[in-house]
Amino acid sequence: MLLERFFPDIYIRSVFEMPLAELKEKGIRALVFDIDNTIAPFDVAEPEESIVELFAMLRRQGFRLCILSNNTKERVHLFNRKLGVLAIHKSGKPGIKKLRRAMEIMGTTPESTALVGDQVFTDMWCGHRAGLTCIMTAPICNRDQLVTKVKRGAERQVMRIYFRKYGK
Ligand SMILES: [Mg+2]
Question: Is this structure's pTM higher than 0.85?
Fold first, then answer.
């Protein structure tokens, strides 16, 4: 079905619910995170302590970590100050060039990498095009950049069909 390209492989309500054992079993060794409304509200400059701790825990568990955002250099670099992971700004999602570059730097492949994001037309589509496992979170808050806001209506339609099909 045409819509499948936008569907997540795994749906979670927040990044704190990632099925880490399942991911490891699948051979996932690296996680690529969207920032805005995935690990922080789009208008909050720095990560909460809980996110800093989550990243530290993931690193201890052996995951390579990356943040990949369509947002600006200033936004992404300031946000990464407390995380200190591979950080890529202006990533051009759903384009996959920067995502491929990120995997190259981390030394992982589409089979061993998962992408985590909150949007079907940017994050999920990008991840699927590059052949990654795609994990979708519910958006952290309902404030959105204008450019995102216009997509949310169509996004809800896609997710309605997804939930009807996979029943969550
Ligand atoms: Mg986002």
Answer: yes
